[in-house]
Amino acid sequence: MGLVTSKEMFEKAYKGGYAIGAFNVNNMEIVQGIMEAAAINNAPVILQVSAGARKYANPIYLKKLVESAIECNKVKGIDIPVVLHLDHGPDFETCKDCIDGGFTSVMIDGSKYDFETNVELTKKVVEYAHARGVVVEAEIGKLAGIEDDVNVKDNDAMYTDPNEAEEFVKRTGCDSLAIAIGTSHGAYKFKKEPRLRYDILEEVSKRLPGFPIVLHGASSVPQEFVEMCNKYGGNIPGAKGVPEDMLRRAATMAVCKINIDSDIRLAMTANIRKCFVENPEVFDPRTYLGMARDAVRDMVSHKIVDVLGCNGKA
Ligand code: G3H
Ligand code: 13P
Ligand code: ZN
User: Fold this and answer.
1) Rounded CA gap, 144 and 156, in Å?
2) 202: closest CA among 187, 188, 213, 186?
3) pTM of the predicted model as reported, rounded to 2 decimal places
4) Which ligand 1 atom is nearest residue 185's CA?
5) Does ligand 1 come within 6 angstroms of the Cβ of 263?
6) Given ligand 2 and candidates 83, 262, 303, which is best to mutate, with the most ligand atoms within 8 Å of its CB?
7) Positive or negative, the Cα torsion across 143, 228, 277, 28?
8) Which of 47, 120, 89 is nearest to 97 (CA)?
9) What is the pLDDT of residue 158?
10) Is 24's C-beta closer than 6 angstroms to any atom of ligand 1?
11) H/E stretch holding 132
12) Count of other CB atoms within 10 angstroms of residue 76
């Protein structure tokens, strides 16, 4: 099966009341950890590459890493559908580059622009992508929180307006839509009690029946990793994510794609810190990167089975 678009994946996920995990990849160990978890659980998977990842690893390396993972699966007789997706495409050129380079899905993130500019930009990407068999995710409404390239001030936070969501999808022809219902990027998501606006999600799905919704900023920031980081020399007090049962509920609704990056960072960092403190004699990167890779595999496996519900759906 190898690389596919998310079209069929989302149709099945919508009907089946589960979601597909979209995991950010930046290096070999991350790709391997995620792919192993997907294979163990016979789960469809989305590997996503941000502009920052392209800058860090070089787009050619990332594409080849994903292709290598699929080829390794083939050799082992494993056949799971994989989507290669551009995360938070900042402009038309980056989307075009990924489409021309063999990605099966791109996100154009026009949420930083006003509604009309976002519509025009998204339409332009959709036209180019669809002519080449590639699907497009778009975004309206701003997510709260701060994360590297993806930066929105907390007091700018606002929820998606279902009227706008309906109009946006109808005018742009995008294939999926990221909406703001209370999640945010990074490891500090809620100052008070976690809250997601399921009412907005419900309203959007009433207006756009069967249309796949995407949840960004959906890491749950497992306290086990936060505590491990802090215990072994880190300093991330008070890090908090979206509780897993809240994500599970969203996955049974119109949410078909759940984005996870911070949890990968935390799983790796916590385990590398632990390894360094407990084994000061270790200086072979394969030792600590191998542990980090196993931690990513176990974390992703847990998400697939206990949060997304996409195990056995490949
Ligand atoms: O949503 C943002 C992702 O976590 C990607 O982060 O831009 O640092 O690669 P990044
Ligand atoms: P987290 O920071 O919650 O992992 O969100 C990742 C994301 O939305 C990538 O687009
Ligand atoms: Zn995001």
Assistant:
1) 7
2) 213
3) 0.96
4) 1
5) no
6) 262
7) negative
8) 89
9) 77
10) yes
11) none
12) 9
